[in-house]
Amino acid sequence: MKSLIKKLVETVGPSGYESKIREVIRGEVEGFADEIQVDAMGNLIIKKGEKKEGGLRVMLSAHIDEIGVMVTHVDKNGFARFTTIGGVRPHTCYGSRVRFMNGSAGVIGGERLENANHVHTIESMYIDLGASNPEDCPVKVGDVAAFDRPFEDLGNRVISKAMDDRVCAAILIETLKLVKNSPHELFFVFSTQEEVGLRGATTAAYAIDPSLGIAVDVTMSGDTPRGIKMDVSLGKGPAIKVKDGGMLADPRLVDAMVQCAKKQKIPYQLEVLLGGTTDAKAMQISRAGMPAGCVSVPTRYVHTPSEMVDINDVNNAVKLLSALISEPIKLV
Amino acid sequence: MKSKKILNQIPEIGEGQIKLLEKLSNAVSVSGEESEVRAIVIEEIKDFADDVKVDALGNVLVTRKSKVKDPIRVMVAAHMDEVGFMLVDDEGEGLFRFEIIGGIDNRQLVGKPVLVGKEKLPGVIGAKPIHLTTADERKNPIPLDNLRIDVGPGNSKKCKVGDRATFATRFEIWGPSLVGKALDDRLGVATLIELIKHMPENIELLAAFTVQEENGLRGARVAAYSMNPDIAFVLDSTPANDLPVWDDEENSRYNVKLNHGPAIYRLDASTLSDPRLINLLAETGDQYGIPYQFRQPGKGGTDAGAIHKQRGGIPSVSISVPGRYAHTAILIARREDWKNTLALMYATLCNVTKELFLTER
Amino acid sequence: MTDLKETLKKLISLPGLSGYEAPAREVIEAAWLPMVDEVSVSPLGSLHALRRGSGPEPRPSILLAAHMDAIGLMVTGIQDGLLRFTEVGGVDPRILPGLRVTVHGRKDLPAVVVQPADYLLEPSQRGKSVAMDYLFIDTGLEESEVDELVKVGDLVSFAQEPLELSGKTIVGHSLDNRISVAAITYCLQELQHMKHKWDVWAVATVQEEETLGGGFTSPFELNPTIAVAIDVTFGKGPGANDWRTVSLSKGPTLGWGPNAHPYVHKKFLEVAEDLEIPFQKEYIPRHSGTDAYAMQVVAGGYPTMVIGIPLRYMHTPVEMIAMKDMERAGRLLAETIVRLEVDFMDKITWDEVKDEE
Description:
Mean pLDDT of chain B: 95
Distance between the termini of chain B: 26 Å
Structural class of chain B: alpha+beta
Mean pLDDT of chain A: 96
Number of helices of chain B: 8
Order of helices and strands of chain A: HHEEEEEEEEEEEHEHEEHEHEEH
Number of domains of chain A: 2
Radius of gyration of chain B: 21 Å
CATH topology of the largest domain in chain A: Aminopeptidase
CATH superfamily of the largest domain in chain B: Zn peptidases
CATH class of the largest domain in chain A: Alpha Beta
Strand content of chain B: 15-25%
Low-confidence stretches of chain A: none
Strand order of the largest sheet of chain A: 1-2-12-3-13-16-14-15
Number of domains of chain B: 2
Number of helices of chain A: 7
Shape of chain B: globular
Oligomer: heterotrimer
């Protein structure tokens, strides 16, 4: 699992520019799919299984895009101004390294601050690629980059950029490999452009027209010093989402997930996240609507270049998902 | 289609087109009440269309069929609505409180003449005399709460709460410049009308004159759902902030520049344009020597934001005529930029094929 | 004509927070069942009830939507036997200190929202309106019992009992938007004795307060011809007196703006004027904040209308409505429905409609 995660997180793929990561994933899932399709938004959609007695058409979604930056202007001295793609927080930028889709690397610098204790605004920062004029500069307006930090293995915990949501893409890949004899018609969606507004999941849900939607995404945790108050911690199991900033998970699905976890003796936590949302929101209100929910991986330092997860939570998430979709799902 | 042939067929911006733009710019159609522009549009295109429909929100949906079999179905959208105001409270003496529809900076409202209601009755947004203000007070913008639309005491012409209003600007030509209100997006509307009249033969054209773009891209959303195209182009106008910077530093946030041609969008707040369409536009521009520029990635949005997420997803891109001072009483654009926008769109439509979309995004 | 006062009081005493509307839905279904031909529940839990018209097929249909979900709170954590919580829907934290609530744990528990003493609060909160993050819910039970009976994700609703105040007003929580559900019930009662050509879909939607989820999904499933949202609107009260507010007891409001089709607005207006049903106008320059905002842009788009019932103190436990306004809304809906001609849709247009008083 760790080497799969490493492969996924170290690929550059900001929202709208997911072709590379899609290829990596396609390589991983090709042997296990009944049908593979790439749609107009670049979503990678894997179909597996047929609907049998007591089965549903289920869509599972993990997004493969990450937050990043796009060049807006290369000035006369070769410095590249940029805008953000998705929720990039300014204080994670200054001094960070970025890696462009074309392989070029740069560091983010900033204009002089009146008060050195303040945080730069995005507009007052720039990317330095070591060029002295626009002709030397290896990037141009419109080129995209992701933050650059290598995968680090601390044993139980692993750190990297883009754990959101590549670690969940890894979970979906492993679930796809594990699941056998499911009564459901399963669609594993590796969705695009989630970070800019759940755009890939919106169109994938419409096209697939499932009757149940399950997102797999990261959530935050409340287990760091004077951190946010949240009853979710690393190492206590995957989190079953009850509510987040964008939606309320269907209580019937929450219940089914809890019952499954209990039956399989998989540790779990109940999650209420105050900010942020997931592909589940897009699925829930697609067409005539569907019960939707999310299995979450507790993560520290979300939307920084060093997100941290517990590998046991990740493995337990795989166990929970595969168990859940291998049986009929009773929504009462 | 051969290169030379296409070059010769590119529609021109002549007297007729300018007159039409003038009519469109002077028309009053604030989001939610687009009747006047809708009528002009229908009148202009009805003899060229195979089908014209007005839907539940007031969008005008025009189909022009292709001469070839199994053509690529291309949606092209331009929004009919403009930013403006709604009168919300009658305080007597001809004074009305008003709300802003769409985004307009407060500081652009003061001292402007306006037109109110379907009869376009004259009114003004005044300001307290300077003599009665203090230096301190003048540092801050006048809040919307303190501004009123004044139609004159007695309100003899009977303006009412609920009426829409907009700036009273009349269209003019100043040298190379087109000057008027609402050129965002009457330039797009005029361009789309020309494309309907001179449609290339290889595509099925689904032209959508949308409503309520300024109120949340609402018309485009349902238009795209109904028309269900293969791909979509959105024609809009985008702010050119190419003025000097206060400290004479290089202007790195110009968005787009006048005289540099139509602006192709890569990223805005609502859409990440499909790279296959971006490349098609750029390659077409290079092929025919039509100047173009890339709009700086950043904030803002167009109808593409609603269109590309419809149904199973619709590859989309926006292309805009640059204009200074958008969402104010006077927008300034260059005739040459408009001409090149029309040329680039026409040539691109000639070049678009289904094969382009066999490669993955 | 059954007096809806007691049904209403019962309805607003039931829990039914966004996402968890089942208890309210059951009561509404029981009330509507005798007056409609078919009842079903949408994938998200909205109630769909069809009352067929008498016109020739294919019959156009009008969808009446009132959201049945209510705002409230949700438990986010348990600390020393006290509950931390967040909002479901929009809750002004200033109404919370000292508020009586019910915690829906393994059983319903009476509780109160409490504000710790200033010196126990983060410095920036002292003396100010305390953010929800720093407030607690106290059930009065010891820690061990709380741990057994309550868990993260449990819902908390306001515990205010319905009151009858002067002027035939009702006060309570969840009148946003159960009063509109009552208006639809009143409309269905009226229709029992009337002939109407169009089909009528009475819909109690879910999750309006969180995502407009019901508003987006019900029209997609039912594909009506016209969709009308009935929701509460701002009644004049202390601190709320400007153009966005209307008077209590002066009749329901007819919405005017981009979210309301002017031809449909005009139809309601004409009926109200002909029958001398008191009404007021609601000016909505941008978006209505109701299910109509969603319904209008579903699929290929629908002509929508917004009917408002004036309500004071919206999103507090002491919301106030006048029963008369609800009855007039119900009556206006019924009277307009019976006057919808079979060829109404041939004539509908956005143009040449003047907003005449």
